[in-house]
Amino acid sequence: MPDIPWFTPTQAAPDAEVYVMASRFETATLTGALRFFLKSPGIIRQTRKAPGAHGVALRARVFSRTFLTLSAWEDRDALYRFARSEPHRSGARAAARYMKESTFTFWTVPAAGLPIGWAEAERRLGEERQKEEPGR
Question: What is the DSSP string of 64-87?
């Protein structure tokens, strides 16, 4: 599956600090992965219009049942407002029924550091997973 590359809805001020979130989702079944994948375009469109969004990307590996998201926000509140709005809110609730594992990590970067690359996101997600499951 092709990635949805980084898209910048609104440019952050050059001297701003932005709030970044990376997530990794693994579904329990291939059917769950297909459901997740089919909901993704609507949520990506929502992100591209969300107030305070400075970037969004998706890496979909449907046959491996794994999805990575990466987004940058004006601040934590902008991210949370997005997460509580539709279609994200109901999509996230529905996805919880077929999710095997979810990992989230958050950090800040200077706006000049955008876009964030997948290598950095995966490194941070790996560190977060290690914290969640010591000995893994």
Answer: GTEEEEEEEESSHHHHHHHHTSTT
Distance separating alpha carbons of residues 16 and 77, to the nearest angstrom: 15
Say if residues 14 and 111 touch (Cβ distance below 8 Å).
yes
56's CB contacts (< 8 A; 6+ apart) are 4, 6, 7, 9, 44, 47, 48, 69, 70, 71, 72
Residue pair 54/9 in contact by the 8 Å Cβ criterion = yes
The CA distance from 124 to 19, in Å, is 14
Closest CA to 6 of 128, 130, 115: 115
> What is the per-residue pLDDT across 89-117, written as a single tens digit (0 to 9) for each?
998 998 999 999 999 999 999 999 999 99
Report the alpha-carbon distance of residue 12 to residue 109 in Å, rounded.
Answer: 11
Distance linking the first and last C-alpha atoms of the chain: 28
Q: What's the order of all strands across the beta sheet hosting 4-7?
A: 4-7, 53-61, 66-73, 17-27, 99-110
- Which pLDDT score, from 0 to 100, does residue 57 have? 95
